[in-house]
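Lecture 7 notes: from sequence to structure.

We start with a single chain of 194 residues. Read the sequence below before looking at the structure.
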Amino acid sequence: MPGRGAHERPNDPFIPSTRLVSPLFYIFSAITLLFAAGVVLNRNPVSSALSMVVSFVGLAALFVTLNAYFIGVIQVLVYTGAVMVLFLFIIMLLDIRKEERRDFNFVAIGGGAVVILAFVAQLAVVLGKFAPGEAELAPLAEGSPAQDDVKRVGELIFTDYNFHLQLLGVLLLIATVGVVVLSRRSESRRPAKP
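Now the structure, written as tokens:
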């Protein structure tokens, strides 16, 4: 049987039809980009972190529309669940205040706009000249070992990248302990209330 494409197995209830994928792609892309902009534009750090959570969920939905269910679930569990809870914990523990509104720096805004336009132009030129990107990939054979992505990712993480996984866990632990130490130090320096 052919691979996992939506147009190749229309009777599969877990694969959305091609008529549905395109509108869902645009909806989830808009959600992801809108809340990603909210991460940068919000002055309240808690609101910014919550916007990042919604952006991560939209990104996970995009992975699901591409039939990458495992990556979508990992996106929600790891980034939305664990990392963002850690971010919110750090923000609330450090008691970061809302950023003060500043005057516009027109030189910085103009420079940023030039950099953005240059990046978009460069991206358009590179993508326009990349002909292999337009070719369709051959579908994976049913039952192929390449399709069992969960098993392959698990084997890679716990064999070739086991040290990196442990190191990442230690770094997150050190960051959490550092936040607790910093918050206790800042509490001890605050003047006592009469």
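Confidence is low (pLDDT under 50) at residues 1-10. Keep this in mind for problem set 3.
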